[in-house]
Design a protein that fits this description.
By secondary structure, the chain is mainly beta. Helices cover about 5% and strands about 55% of the residues. The strands form 3 sheets. Strands 1, 3, 8, 9 and 11 form a 5-stranded mixed β-sheet that branches. A 4-stranded antiparallel β-sheet has the order 2-10-6-7. It has a two-stranded antiparallel ribbon with strand order 4-5.
């Protein structure tokens, strides 16, 4: 049995095109720590084909997870989102080929990710596409009260 309150922290953003170091963060309440147990997420895979925004299913997003307020990074290099996130790719209505694009066929399999965040969850994103990309990540775990 776990002590604490089950909690989900969700971070969502639109990552601008041709950007590196785009920050998305979620602050922790100062009286608690968040014991993350797993992470899941979804993202778009849009690109330009001439003047059209299309979805060929190839991701241009990568990210780093950081313990906000500290120098601790979980990965030194930007990691492609498709390597870690489930359900992963999601279709976007912005794509001109949305009706003919390959189906997503996502399988739900959350990634086990255990860490105790004490100040904030911080994500750094890189988007190599010429189109803005949507991303949302959810960290599932328990909030634990700090003892003074």
């Amino acid at each position: 049995m776990r002590n604490g309150t089950r909690k989900i922290y969700t971070l969502a953003a639109t990552v601008p095109a041709q950007t590196t170091g785009f920050v998305v963060s979620k602050d922790m309440d100062g009286s608690v720590v968040f014991n993350a147990l797993e992470v899941r997420g979804a993202f778009t895979t849009l690109t330009l084909d001439g003047a059209d925004i299309v979805d060929y299913g190839v991701s241009s997003l990568s990210f780093k997870i950081v313990e906000g307020g500290t120098d601790y990074q979980f990965n030194d290099n930007y990691t492609p989102v498709e390597m870690l996130l489930s359900p992963g790719r999601k279709k976007s209505p912005l794509a001109t080929n949305a009706s003919t694009a390959e189906p997503v066929n996502a399988v739900y399999s959350p990634l086990s990710f255990e860490h105790q965040f004490t100040k904030k969850i911080e994500l750094l994103f890189s988007n190599n596409s010429d189109v803005d990309q949507e991303i949302n990540l959810s960290f599932l775990g328990y909030e634990l009260k700090k003892y003074q």
